[in-house]
């Protein structure tokens, strides 16, 4: 392998010191998911192309695979039978997995899934072609109780709240509230209205209003639609404000009751985490109940770092239907935002806690044995690369942030190279302070 | 998503109970790598196709990507400039990463990398199109001390020896021994001989001898080549047996000294782990020193589950050269072998330790609060899906292997549903026995 190597746009790669931070973040998210009883799942990276293309709007994002020397004589621009593509999210593969393995799973089925996904989009800040998602979903057979919609924000609050990152705010809404309200207003094409409302942040209320009226709404209807979208509240007070708009519809009432429950649960367990925001629509058309978006305080302009919602029709097979609710954390986007502002650091770039010095190459086995003894007690240790002068061996440790250097001798000794303190020690029993054992990740906030 | 869903041959997927085992295995391997001071690295899944194809013999295995709606009008059968393929191992991407980031890395650079790789091969038992590899490598600039070749088996011995799997035996050899010996015999084309010797396990000594003679060796030369290949020893005794064959060459001596060191180090630190086996050649042509293969006791016929070696010329850029040594554990192959024989089991299929029962839907918040209190103490807990009769709620736990059911009440109580014992408990202070906290993975051996 040689020369002219340049990074690939849209395919971020971290240095080991950053990867160490990513692992720490992924590990803490995973542990939180497990604390809530979500079981681990990993699906293959590929799906049949026809499955990936069922939602037409994402077709442009798919990477298609072909074997370099495929027997079938290569590909053309049409979709070849059995052709495979890389998954662009974890929801489509999960739905497929549930259908394929329904007979072997216990329902309701709670799973988490932390994997890379790929999209052939034009790369730009916050958009990547390869990135990590961390998903949870709860699916049931036939029906899924609405209380699960109230559980999702608690999980995300714990998962992200436990990290050395800025505070998060989860914005919740309910598609039944929106659709019921629009229906109650006498609007037939609720989907068109949703699409317009979804643009509020981008183009502002005046232009959304124009769009709504151009789409056939009366001025009065458009005003009500915008009035609903303006409602925000940190507690269930939003429900009265909706009712004051004077629109009534059974679906609206159902949605309000569900949304009140989501907000009440969050207020009881995690005050300040959730805000009802009736502007949130989530473009994807498969959501049918609660929807979630999540903003990072101080980084709101980067958009949602964790989104999802309730879906009733994603996975169906003959008479079987598997409604679910889920959310996805955009881990790579989150990290890229924080790395770009040096808002996350690790105390060292390597796992090593102790560098074992080497007196001479003949005595290397002694150093190897000391390192082995330290490892048996769970202390990450490596042996110096050569028997250079001790000053040079110490600099090897310094450059990597390794805090201790071990010197084998008649009596072994260990030096904290930060303070310079050195003391006799026995590799079979010595332990460093807990905070030195592994690299520590800290945030700027 | 609907109907006609079938598994894809070569793309294994585990059920959550198996994924849980895979995670445990990967986690323990990772912790061992970190104990030896290897830093984490993850490279993108794709590489420019021309980089992947530099080693001609693997070109048939590569999956090429195209964006479904690429602006450049699709692909044909030739290699398009800037075309991307999925990596087929972790060594080629690592070499590229080192060249790309040499200025930001500290050498010698020790890294581990645990990722999926893809190969477009025809699937068969033990061969997959998507599978996990767990790699370690140590690379240095210009020169790499040979003592690192002795360290690799210790890491693998700890990583695999700590798992609930059968014992492993690492077979080591040194390419300098083979090449030096062949040269000392007056053989010019040592590569052809290596290729023949590599077939020993498959076709036996008689046919290898025929192949060698057909390739231009004298009967005496062929006999010596086979005599060398027959040498095996659990200690450095192999060196005398090689010398007794009466061949001398400086490269042979150098290789023998290196191999003695590898074996001696292993005998001192992990007796029984390593065996010198002078038949091992490793087909890949980039190895230049020690080579490793690893067999699982009782599963030898499945071949090596962890292979690697020393390479001097993998990563070069202008005047910079980065020699290295590394090894790769074929995690998916290992798991598939053991799963196929029910040789690995988890004590339960979900992380959940406690199911919190629900008295009535009105009282659900009380159960949610009890679960939150348990989680604050690190106890995985989930709340029952509905307020069914307690017998039914207990069966929900039973079917998933959840050991405890929690009953909120005037005084809360907790029941071990395996023994039937029930006792009053406080969610803020109760803790289960350590062995119940997480699923436990055990092996059949």
From TrEMBL, chains A, B:
Q: List the InterPro entries hit by this protein, alphabetically.
A: aa-tRNA-synth_II, aa-tRNA-synth_II/BPL/LPL, Anticodon-bd, Anticodon-bd_dom_sf, His-tRNA-ligase, HisRS-like_core, HisRS/HisZ
| Taxonomy, superkingdom | Bacteria
Q: What GO biological process term is on the record, naming one?
A: histidyl-tRNA aminoacylation
Q: What is its EC number?
A: 6.1.1.21
**Top enzyme class of this protein?**
ligase
Q: Which reaction does it catalyse?
A: tRNA(His) + L-histidine + ATP = L-histidyl-tRNA(His) + AMP + diphosphate + H(+)
Q: Where is this region: Disordered?
A: 418-445
* Chain ranges of the Aminoacyl-transfer RNA synthetases class-II family profile domain: 108-351
* NCBIfam families for the chain: hisS
What assembly does the database describe for this protein?
Homodimer.
- Name it: Histidine--tRNA ligase
Organism of origin: Catenuloplanes indicus
């Amino acid at each position: 392998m040689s020369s002219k190597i340049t990074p690939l746009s849209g395919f971020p790669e971290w240095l080991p010191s950053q990867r160490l931070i990513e692992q720490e973040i992924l590990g803490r998210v995973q542990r939180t998911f497990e604390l809530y009883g979500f079981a681990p799942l990993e699906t293959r990276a590929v799906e049949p192309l026809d499955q990936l293309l069922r939602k037409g709007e994402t077709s442009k994002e798919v990477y298609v695979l072909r074997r370099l020397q495929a027997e079938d004589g290569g590909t053309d621009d049409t979709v070849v039978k059995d052709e495979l593509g890389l998954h662009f999210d974890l929801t489509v593969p999960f739905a497929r997995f549930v259908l394929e393995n329904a007979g072997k799973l216990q329902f309701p089925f709670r799973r988490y899934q932390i994997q890379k996904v790929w999209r052939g989009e034009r790369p730009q800040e916050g958009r990547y072609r390869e990135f990590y998602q961390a998903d949870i979903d709860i699916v049931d057979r036939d029906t899924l109780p609405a209380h699960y919609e109230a559980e999702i924000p608690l999980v995300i609050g714990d998962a992200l709240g436990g990290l050395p990152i800025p505070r998060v705010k989860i914005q919740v809404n309910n598609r039944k509230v929106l659709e019921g309200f629009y229906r109650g207003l006498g609007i037939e094409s609720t989907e068109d209205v949703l699409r317009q409302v979804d643009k509020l942040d981008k183009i502002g209320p005046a232009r959304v209003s124009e769009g709504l009226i151009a789409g056939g709404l009366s001025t009065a209807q458009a005003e009500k639609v915008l009035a609903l979208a303006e409602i925000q509240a940190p507690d269930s007070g939003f429900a009265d404000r909706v009712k004051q708009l004077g629109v009534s519809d059974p679906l609206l009432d159902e949605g309000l009751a569900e949304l009140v429950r989501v907000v009440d649960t969050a207020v009881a367990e995690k005050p300040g985490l959730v805000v009802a925001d009736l502007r949130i629509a989530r473009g994807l058309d498969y959501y049918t109940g609660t929807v979630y978006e999540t903003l990072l305080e101080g980084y709101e302009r980067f958009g949602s770092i964790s989104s999802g919602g309730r879906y009733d029709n994603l996975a169906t097979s003959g008479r079987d239907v598997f409604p679910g609710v889920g959310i996805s954390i955009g881990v790579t986007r989150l990290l890229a935002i924080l790395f770009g502002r040096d808002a996350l650091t690790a105390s060292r770039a390597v796992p090593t806690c102790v560098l074992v010095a080497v007196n001479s190459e003949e005595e290397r086995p002694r150093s190897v044995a000391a390192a082995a003894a330290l490892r048996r007690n769970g202390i990450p240790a490596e042996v110096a690369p050569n028997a250079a002068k001790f000053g040079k061996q110490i600099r090897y440790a310094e450059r990597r942030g390794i805090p201790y250097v071990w010197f084998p001798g008649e009596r072994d000794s260990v030096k904290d190279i930060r303070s310079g303190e050195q003391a006799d020690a026995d590799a079979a029993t010595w332990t460093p302070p807990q905070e030195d054992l592994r690299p520590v990740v800290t945030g700027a906030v």
